[in-house]
Write a structure and sequence with these properties.
Elements (H helix, E strand, L loop, with lengths): L1 H9 L9 H6 L1 H9 L2 E11 L5 E12 L3 E8 L3 E6 L2 E6 L4 E6 L8 H6 L8 E5 L4 E6 L8 E7 L2 E8 L5 E11 L17 E4 L8
Parallel strand pairs: 6-12
Antiparallel strand pairs: 1-2, 1-11, 2-3, 3-4, 4-5, 5-6, 7-8, 8-9, 9-10, 10-11
Length: 210
């Protein structure tokens, strides 16, 4: 179940002033936002514990259409679909015959899928620091965020990899492959209708959320 919950966090990153270092660090990411309308491809995901031992490996396909729409299809080791249409975020688990849906609001705004598919970078949600190895580290400013920190690797004008670090010492690394940028993605790919007989759980919006 922990792995499934972690996938939800992966599914799915402007008002506060940023320090000069953060502004400089964000330049490649801001170019990605400015130049990218859609992004699609394949992904591999690896989860390691605090000792560096691999605890989970998975792979699948993804698509992003900005602003606010994305889809992650986990194909192995078990199927799972995470879809956001700009208003609602669905998580469908076929092996459980269960789907969870919740509004896209400020409690989900820092999920990586939404981070990459947003209209612009939510600078009020993250502090940004450029690291010596060419990665960009984003630390949530919100105490109740489900993330510890996020690292992004950008090359050739697009995001190539993400790393998520939690408070338990676990690291989730997502590498993006066979990328297709700014190619048309059908709108129906971001629509989800639960199959007949599936148990649908509706999560309430967060207090003060949208």
């Amino acid at each position: 179940m922990a792995e499934r919950l972690r996938h939800v966090l992966l599914a799915a990153l402007l008002a506060l002033p940023a320090p000069l270092l953060a502004a400089s660090a964000l330049a490649p990411l801001e170019r990605f936002y400015a130049d990218t309308r859609t992004l699609a491809g394949q992904f591999t995901q690896t989860v390691t514990d605090a000792s560096g031992t691999v605890s989970e490996e998975s792979r699948g396909e993804f698509a992003i259409a900005r602003p606010g729409r994305f889809r992650w299809d986990y194909q192995t080791p078990f199927e799972q679909i995470i879809v956001a249409d700009g208003r609602e975020l669905w998580v469908y688990e076929p092996d459980l015959d269960q789907a969870t849906v919740r509004p896209v609001d400020e409690q989900t705004a820092d999920a990586p899928g939404l981070l990459l598919s947003g209209a612009r970078f939510p600078a009020d949600l993250f502090d940004a620091v450029a690291e010596a190895d060419g990665w960009l580290r984003l630390t949530p400013t919100r105490a109740d965020s489900g993330l510890g920190s996020v690292r992004l690797k950008l090359a050739d004008g697009t995001v190539q990899a993400l790393e998520l670090h939690d408070g338990l010492g676990q690291t989730t690394r997502i590498e993006l492959h066979h990328l297709r940028r700014n190619e048309p993605v059908p709108a129906k790919r971001f629509a989800f209708t639960p199959p007949a007989g599936v148990d649908v759980i509706r999560a309430l919006p967060a207090p003060g959320g949208g």
